[in-house]
Amino acid sequence: MGSRVVVLDYGFGNVRSATRALERVGAEVTLTADRAAAQDADGLVVPGVGAFAACMAGLRKVRGHEVIGRRIAGGRPVLGICVGMQILFDAGVEHGERAEGMGEWPGAVERLDAPVVPHMGWARIEAPEGSRLFEGVEQERFYFVHSYAAQTFTRGHDAFADPRFRPPLVTWAHAGTPGHGTRFVAAVEDGPLSATQFHPEKSGDAGARLLENWVRGLG
Asked: What gap in Å lies between CA 91 and CA 213, rounded to an integer?
């Protein structure tokens, strides 16, 4: 039997594509907003499309933020995708309005400072050494479609970081041409919590390998 994965169906995700992509790499997938099922699964996937504030409101409506928080506290794997990654930060700022996020990571998600927004299409990533998520696809391209992103990541990477704890592994990507554009957070691996700004379910063989890596880590 494959690992049991719940794709959280809270009204703001590319849920069908994510479900099919996870099934193709051997996971036993349930698409649901049921909190007990989401809590008990081997892995929880939180997709997200659209506006940060709307996604957060949808998540709270099904009390998904409580499930995510409990899973992380208990060391149980969670994977956020696109806006499902963005809501893990302190806040999102869209059109001058600030919406509170889950606060798992410090910082705000803001509009990309790039010549062309939205940033759409295939882009290479800069994966850190030791990444399990990108094992075997460190040099590949992944599919992005977004206007906002986290453009800094400080937790565990600043002068005040506690050396007893391993800092999160942060993968970066670039929107725009060299010298014109901005570097942004493309993925984070932080203990049981992983997330990607790109869409692995739309990223062909590279995305399938990444999802396979994540599912394999569910044990």
From this structure: 29
DSSP output for 132-157: STTTT-TT-EEEEEESEEE----TTS
Q: Which pair of structure tokens corresponds to residue 204? A: 């062909």
Neighbours of 14 (CB within 10 A): 19
Separation CA 68–CA 76 (nearest Å): 9
**Catalytic residues, which ones?**
82, 199, 201
Per-residue pLDDT of the chain (219 residues; tens, 9 = 90+): 689 999 999 998 889 999 999 999 999 999 999 999 999 999 999 999 999 999 999 999 999 999 999 999 999 999 999 999 999 999 999 989 999 999 999 999 999 999 899 999 999 999 999 999 999 999 999 999 999 999 999 886 765 556 667 899 999 999 987 777 899 999 999 999 999 999 999 999 999 999 999 999 997
**DSSP letters spanning 158-170:** STT--TTSPPPEE
